[in-house]
Backbone:
């Protein structure tokens, strides 16, 4: 039983983890190379980091016509 546990730990460290990192890297690179094409969109409004400032959020919505 102890031999098998040692083998699995080595397999996990030497094979499994590098393969997982390789797959995740490949997925990340694929996502980075994806180009989006928008049609019929005149603009995009992105709002972040509100931190509970409701009044400022409402002003942003009014200012952008949303």
Residues:
């Amino acid at each position: 039983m102890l031999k098998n546990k040692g083998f699995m730990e080595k397999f996990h460290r030497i094979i499994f983890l590098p393969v997982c990192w390789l797959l995740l890297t490949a997925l990340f690179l694929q996502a980075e190379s994806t180009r989006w094409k928008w049609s019929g969109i005149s603009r995009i409004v992105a709002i972040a980091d509100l931190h509970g400032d409701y009044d400022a959020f409402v002003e942003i919505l009014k200012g952008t016509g949303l």
